[in-house]
Amino acid sequence: MTAxxxxxxxVAVLGAFLVLPLLVGQAEHKLMAHMQGRLGPMYAGGFxxxxxxxxxxxxxxxxxxxxxxxxxxxxxxxxxxxxxxPYLLALAALPLQRxxxxxxxxxxxxxxxxxxxxxxxxTLMAGWASANKYxxxxxxxxxxxxxxxxxxxxxxxxxACLAAGTLSLTGVVEAWSPWWLIWQLPGALVFxxxxxxxxxxxxxxxxxxxxxxVMGPWTEYSGLRFAFFLLAxxxxxxxxxxxxxxxxLGGWRGPFDEALGWLWTLLKGFAVAVLVIWFRVAWPRMRxxxxxxxxxxxxxxVALVQLALTGIGVVMTR
Amino acid sequence: xxxxxxxxxxxxxxxARAEKAxxxxxxxxxGLLPGILKGLATTxxxxxxRTHTHEYPDVAPDLPPRSRGVIALLEENxxxxxxxxxxxxDWCIYIDSHKExxxxxxxxxxxxxRNVLDRFAIDFSLxxxxxxxIEVCPFDALFWxxxxxxxxxxxxxxxxEKDRLGGWMETVPPPPALDERAAEPAEVTAANKxxxxxxxxxxxxxxxxxxxxxxxxxxxxxxxxRERPT
Lengths: 318, 230
Fold this sequence. Notes:
Number of domains of chain A: 1
Enzyme class (chain B): translocase
Largest interface: A-B, 14 and 13 residues
Structural class of chain B: alpha+beta
Catalytic activity (chain B): a quinone + NADH + 5 H(+)(in) = a quinol + NAD(+) + 4 H(+)(out)
Binding site for [4Fe-4S] cluster 2 (chain B): 88, 127, 130, 133
Strand content of chain A: under 5%
Structural class of chain A: mainly alpha
Family (chain B): Belongs to the complex I 23 kDa subunit family.
Oligomer: heterodimer
Pfam families (chain B): Fer4, Fer4_4
Strand order of the largest sheet of chain B: 2-3-5
Shape of chain A: globular
CATH topology of the domain at 70-171 in chain B: Alpha-Beta Plaits
């Protein structure tokens, strides 16, 4: 791989990283508005407010970047990047087609999972460094949530990888067959719920429950650093949606997948992202104890049963 | 004894009733899973229906009747009586006036005085839109107008003088129709009242006869002093 190729691939990933979250964000604006009988943004950019998030970005860039006096300055300033950059790395390892992937590593499933869970560290750092009780409570809630939901998430991915016999995401898609939609369904549902919790999206947004904790770990942030946290949230939705599409929906498998495979992956990922948005509009926030019960008493047993089921299936068919 | 026992019995009965009610509620909504699916269905259905948004600067809003936008002044009706300025809870109405003398029209008549309004201003940065000035005006000089687009970038520009207040009279809607079977407005009743019939000239004999059934007053008067000493 030459230096030029590395540079090109990096730029491509960066471009996707800046565009795809904005697409999801705009979809959320419009879909949420229509689900509530509203229109959503209509002015920015002229046509149905397509440039609303660009305008928001410009607004955030103009705002003052405040660091509280009591804050742990260095940690406070680094936290947004710790939250944001892991998703950039995860996006680089996600394949859109057989050869359309920035970094093709043999254990890409492990890489994506490991890197995506680092992002939560940024939330924890932000909450701890803010020197604010709401931020700290939010950060502790988020830590508790991530510890509980990491396990079912990893088990669900392990089940898909076990079924495929490989840890490479490209390999998983190659091994995928439509039967997986039934065989791996419990694991897929567990992954979807756990990913929602991992992203701290409603109904699992207790860490930033605005009725109780102002804005949770983000309370003290303003300007571009706050925008980075928002971008990290939407980049997280992109990463987990694409991961779901690759592991359980067959990625680029579909008609004309030689030429349009990347489009299939993106469309399937977008459908999952729409589902994530829909859940946010339809469901209220869960309570902290309900969240823990759901993780340990429902998701974990289901994930274990799915793993056993996959093991039996693999042994029987081979 | 029975009184002491009652609360003990009452408490479990109440909780049992509450439990039963919650169970009934759960079975009616179909438990947890159909509930969350119902939420998804509701939002999806709303997304397919028309939105309720009026895009305001492009589309004028449908204001309800009796909207309180701004207070308009009909200067001709104002007598500078100051009732509105006195009743205003935050004193945001400013009135200046002077008296003019109208000379008598007839020979030997008296000169009359008239109030002339010099200044009538409402400070809309103070006004709380209570409408008391409009209620209290006895001469119908103040009206609610639904006009609401008079925002300013400087708070001092919200003090509007009588020419601006009078300009809003054009936007005042006609009074809403009366409710069904409501009483007629006082003005209409007064206008429709039949003129008084002219009195017949008094005749001493006729007057006596009509008064005959009444008790004569004069014998009553001495009674009071008689009762007092007892």
